[in-house]
Design a protein that fits this description.
By secondary structure, the protein is of the alpha+beta class. The chain has a domain of about 200 residues. Helix 6 packs across helix 7 and helix 7 packs antiparallel against helix 8. The protein is globular, with a radius of gyration of 25 Å.
């Protein structure tokens, strides 16, 4: 529960003219759409509609013209207008950070067992990566192969009913240089969980992991699944099995406990990181610079957008998967079963209902300050209503006119191969089109509403 502000009220929405990512997308996304068919379709496939949809939402993130939430102080009746966020995945830095913190808090408090875990990585050779880029539904085969490898490694090469490790897998498609490199990161219990009796789950820790054997198991599992799905011909799979240096790689860290919050956050933040974090991105003199781990990449804005949008997940594509003891069906049985508190061997399972944190709580975790604290008295303000009327918002927030003109993108691909058609309604309230070189300085609009 939010109460009086414990830190100075210094939260500010993101400034359009200060974000290098916003500058690149705002000025050069139309050019990227125009040349996509000629320059990038051969390497990256057809232009996916989710790209334009994600970019439209990102450009409207924090824009008061898309609607605001009105907060009111219960003591001094001070009003505050908070614009909405875009909530995009793996694109908007602010929304992605909030999503990551929310997810980590949820699994730490409601899902992870109080036992030792390990952080795993499963990668595949370059020979197989294009299959998963052209057909992203095949990414589920990576998850299935990794889950089978972990479960069989703990059960003597076969799956035992009622005994599984707890597995949380995250699909990651980018490398440090933003190239396509599909691989998996997993948080796995350091042993098996025996849930034969759902009311009395028991944990059996693994004494030794044979990484070399698991690598070969992962290669066999994945190639077998790809042959069954008729993605690979049997002779191609046999050829890949004969490689001395297979290109498959399995890695595991030292064990840790979920109570070690900082270690858990670091591991999962790395596995769920953005392709180009803001702290490594700069845009100067018409060139985009990305500071990678081992090298610094410099490219044109259009090339940068092509690499960045390649890793936007498809709509309804679940990039976080739960398997083994952490799967939804097993968790449902465990939560419904009556817990047995008279046994010392039982694993403590949290059965409290999930509680969704407030928006202000997430912002406070990201920025360290409570955003809805009253600027006058510091009291936490209450949500009163949502306002979508642009005329009303423009009237009470006159500074809204300093925001960049809103862009609209055509989602229909023309017959001549161009993925974008310039719209006549490219602006709202401003007679400025795509030819402008610098967006109007929006600065920081006054969120205090004047009634």
């Amino acid at each position: 529960m939010l109460c009086h502000a414990i830190v100075p009220h210094g939260y500010r929405p993101r400034l359009f003219n200060e974000s290098p990512l916003f500058k690149v997308i705002y000025h050069h996304f139309a050019d990227f759409q125009e040349c996509y068919h000629l320059l990038y379709s051969e390497h990256y496939g057809f232009f996916r509609p989710i790209i334009a949809h994600t970019v439209e939402r990102f450009l409207a993130c924090g824009d008061p013209r898309e609607g605001v939430a009105r907060y009111e102080c219960p003591k001094c009746q001070q009003n505050l207008a908070i614009p909405f966020s875009c909530k995009t995945r793996l694109f908007c830095p602010s929304c992605h950070e909030k999503r990551t913190l929310l997810w980590i808090e949820a699994i730490q408090e409601e899902l992870l067992l109080p036992v030792s875990h390990r952080f795993w990585s499963f990668s595949i050779p370059k020979r197989l990566r294009p299959y998963f880029m052209w057909n992203r539904k095949l990414l589920s085969l990576l998850v299935t192969a990794a889950n089978n490898t972990l479960a069989k490694s703990l059960s003597g090469g076969r799956l035992t009913k009622g005994m599984r490790p707890g597995i949380i897998s995250l699909m990651q498609t980018h490398s440090g240089t933003m190239d396509w490199n599909c691989h998996l990161h997993l948080i796995v219990t350091d042993g098996l969980v025996d849930y034969t009796d759902p009311a009395l789950p028991k944990f059996k820790q693994c004494a030794f992991w044979d990484i070399g054997v698991m690598t070969e198991m992962f290669r066999l599992e994945l190639l077998t699944l790809m042959v069954k799905r008729k993605v690979l011909a049997p002779e191609v799979a046999d050829n890949l099995m004969s490689w001395r240096n297979s290109g498959f790689h399995v890695y595991a860290t030292e064990s840790f406990r979920p109570a070690d919050t900082q270690t858990l956050i670091n591991r999962l933040a790395y596995a769920y990181r953005l392709p180009a974090p803001l702290n490594r991105l700069s845009f100067n003199d018409g060139r985009v610079t990305v500071a990678a781990r081992k090298q610094t990449l410099t490219m044109t804005p259009v090339d940068f957008i092509a690499k960045l949008t390649l890793h936007i997940p498809n709509r309804y594509q679940n990039i976080r998967r739960y398997a083994g003891f952490y799967s939804s069906n097993i968790q449902r049985k465990v939560r419904l079963a009556k817990p047995a508190n008279n046994s010392t061997d039982a694993v403590v399972v949290a059965i409290r209902p999930p509680v969704k944190p407030k928006w202000a709580t997430l912002i406070a975790k990201v920025f360290g300050e409570i955003p809805i604290a009253c600027p006058r008295c510091g009291t936490a303000m209450d949500l009163k209503e949502f306002i979508f009327d642009v005329r009303w918002i423009t009237k009470v927030i006159p500074e809204i006119s300093r925001a960049p003109p809103k862009l609209t993108f055509d989602r229909n691909v023309a017959m001549n191969g161009l993925a974008y058609a310039r719209s006549e309604d490219a602006t709202v309230g401003n007679n400025v089109g795509f030819d402008q070189t610098v967006p109007e300085n929006d600065g920081f609009f006054n969120q205090d509403l004047n009634w």
